[in-house]
Design goal:
The structure holds 2 protein chains of 2 kinds. Chain A is an alpha/beta fold. Chain A has one domain: RecF/RecN/SMC, N-terminal domain (Glutathione S-transferase Yfyf (Class Pi), Chain A, domain 2, Up-down Bundle), CATH 1.20.1050.90. Chain A has helices at about 25-40, 95-100, 120-135, 135-160, 165-205, 225-240, 240-250, 270, 275-295, 315-325; strands at about 15-20, 55-65, 70-80, 85-90, 95, 105-110, 210-215, 260-265, 265-270, 300-305, 330-335, 345-350, 350-355. In chain A, the strands form 3 sheets. Chain A has a 6-stranded mixed beta sheet, with helices on both faces. Chain A has a 4-stranded antiparallel beta sheet with strand order 2-3-4-5. In chain A, strands 7-8-9 form a 3-stranded antiparallel beta sheet. In chain A, a hairpin with a 2-residue loop joins strand 12 (about 345-350) and strand 13. Chain B has a domain at about 65-155: Dna Topoisomerase Vi A Subunit, Chain: A, domain 2 (3-Layer(aba) Sandwich), CATH 3.40.1360. Chain B contains 7 helices and 6 strands, in the order H-H-E-E-H-E-H-E-H-E-H-E-H. Chain B has helices spanning about 5-20, 20-35, 55, 70-80, 110-120, 130-145, 170-175, and strands at about 40, 45-50, 60-70, 85-90, 120-125, 150-155. The chains are: A alpha/beta, B alpha/beta.
Chain lengths: ~350, ~180
């Protein structure tokens, strides 16, 4: 895949650091590990780019030790006539993506996450979706169905008028059902995330910098937080926005418009915080994400840090690595040597890996 | 040709070149016959040589049951079960506004007319268990509910001979939702 024709690699437990100049294949390694764990690339929406230029397919196979025992995962990407097809297998048996996802938990941290607070809401929703999809196959199923029905509803709203009312009502009925599942899961997840992020943040900055608060800005107003309560609020909001959805020819209600809000002492951090405060909050969030994934699955996730350390000052590097101290295995790429307690360091040059003597 | 890659295609060509002309001739005629003789049943829209089709003109089929399928080929799958003795209606696809397919592009008006004319007791919707299949089934149920015809759809769930241990969580949850009373 990418610039690797073939590679056999047995990483060590603890912290694996890949050092090398740009464009040598450091991030490609992390991408391969993420693909193996989550079945998706964290770098590109065009996953056919993962396949080495001129070849029909790419594949990655790995052995992982998890609480349930040893598991062999395999993910192949096949490009035929411009279309990409992914095949997943567990212990040599082909499985659907929904069964593949979540066997090995992966928490990734990429430079794009550093603008999580100031970037568009879609960035924060995709973080929620990636974490929750690994956490629960039901969430993944609801998200996949929701996305499909949302696309159909939008196409219907844009189509020639008059609109088929019975069909619109059918899509709304499914969106409410799947969307409610998503909203409930997001509520619980953000509550757990916020609690941990607050504790991490407090441990780092004490009381001096203020209290970090993470909250769920759900598009469907907070009602009684039960399946029925949320579904009822959802239906009411759809009725409110009925004519607006038609005139703007797009779906205006539902979890695809949710957001995650960061506040410091009650003030929105995205708009008012300094860059330093925002960065500290993002780090607290990532540490919290790791902690929640670990608590929920009962095992330490793999941690992938792509080119993030060099973006941080030494003090924040230290704080991040200390806070993640419980990791069993982590992979870090860096262009510049950084002071980290590596278990193994590899120099990456032109898609070759060479372990550096400690 | 679907499922035929370049290697298989080459093999077919070499095979044909090795056979007598008469064989190629009869194959060509058979292909033409498919195009010329197979048509849609004007009643249920299944593929047939004679109109109405053998299923529609068979008086022994149960007229109280009507089964809506997306494509004509789905009829063959259901017929292979030997478990269904009612009649069929081919919709000609599934509703998908993203692909420009609405109710008007399918044979839904014809289905409603048939329900009124033939008055079956039950309409079974046998669409695939994916988003489009589900939406089409729910949409039909919504349209047909006022007529009083009972509308059902195929169950979701576990494969026969399967193992609970190996079922994926989502399928198992669907099977739980669709559980049925034993006593």
């Amino acid at each position: 895949m990418r610039n690797y024709a073939a590679l056999d690699f047995a990483p060590v437990a603890g912290l694996n650091v890949f050092v090398g100049a740009n464009a040598q294949g450091k991030s490609n390694l992390l991408e391969a590990i993420a693909l193996l764990g989550t079945g998706k690339s964290f770098r590109t929406a065009r996953e056919s780019d993962v396949v080495r230029h001129g070849l029909p397919s790419a594949s990655i196979t790995g052995q992982a030790r998890v609480a349930a025992g040893s598991v062999r995962l395999s993910c192949s990407l096949n490009v035929a006539r411009g279309a990409l097809r992914k095949v997943y297998a567990i212990n040599g048996r082909k499985v659907a993506y929904a069964s593949y996802l979540g066997r090995v938990r992966v928490v990734t941290f990429v430079p794009a996450h550093l603008s999580l607070l100031t970037g568009p809401p879609a960035l924060r929703r995709s973080l929620l979706n990636a974490a929750l999809a690994q956490d629960s196959p039901h969430y993944y199923a609801a998200l996949a169905a929701y996305t499909k029905f949302l696309g159909q509803k939008n196409a219907l709203l844009r189509a020639a008028h008059p609109i088929d009312e019975a069909l619109l009502a059918t899509y709304d009925e499914r969106l409410v059902a799947e969307g409610t599942t998503m909203i409930l899961a997001r509520r619980a997840f953000i509550a757990a995330l916020g609690e941990r992020a607050l504790a991490v943040h407090r441990a780092w900055v004490g009381e001096t910098d203020g209290t970090l608060d993470l909250s769920y800005a759900a598009d469907v107003p907070d009602a009684v937080p039960t399946q029925d309560g949320i579904a009822a609020a959802y239906v009411a909001r759809l009725a409110d926005k009925r004519s607006a959805e038609r005139s703007r020819a797009t779906a205006l209600v539902g979890p695809h418009r949710d957001d995650l809000v960061f506040r410091l002492n009650g003030r929105p951090l995205g708009a008012f915080g300094s860059q330093g405060q925002q960065r500290t909050a993002v780090l607290a969030l990532k540490v919290a994400e790791y902690g929640v994934a670990e608590a929920r699955s009962g095992e330490a996730p793999l941690l992938l840090l792509d080119d993030v350390l060099s973006e941080l000052d030494p003090q924040r590097q230290r704080a991040l690595l200390d806070a993640l101290g419980s990791f069993e295995q982590a992979f870090v790429t860096t262009a510049h040597p950084v002071e980290v307690p590596a278990a193994a360091t590899y120099r990456v040059i032109g898609a070759h890996l060479e372990r550096v003597a400690a | 040709m679907p499922t035929v890659g370049p290697k298989t295609a080459a093999r077919l060509v070499f095979h044909l070149l090795n056979r007598p002309r008469s064989e190629a001739q009869s194959l060509a005629e058979a292909i033409l016959a498919v195009k010329d003789r197979i048509q849609l049943c004007s009643h249920c829209f299944a593929l047939t040589e004679d109109d109405p089709c053998a299923l529609c003109s068979d008086g022994r089929r149960d007229a109280t049951l009507l089964c809506a399928v997306a494509e004509a080929k789905d009829i063959y799958a259901l017929e292979r079960t030997g478990a269904y003795r009612g009649r069929y209606h081919v919709l000609g696809g599934l509703i998908s506004p993203m692909d420009g397919i609405g109710a008007a592009q399918l044979r839904i008006k014809e289905l409603i007319e048939r329900l009124a004319a033939e008055g079956p007791d039950e309409l079974i919707i046998a669409t695939n268990p994916n988003a489009e299949g589900e939406a089409t089934a729910l949409y039909l149920a919504r349209l047909i509910a006022p007529s009083g015809v009972r509308v059902t759809r195929l169950a979701y769930g576990l494969p026969i001979g399967g193992d609970l241990d190996y079922a994926d969580e989502v399928t198992l949850a669907k099977a739980l939702e669709g559980r049925r009373t034993l006593s």
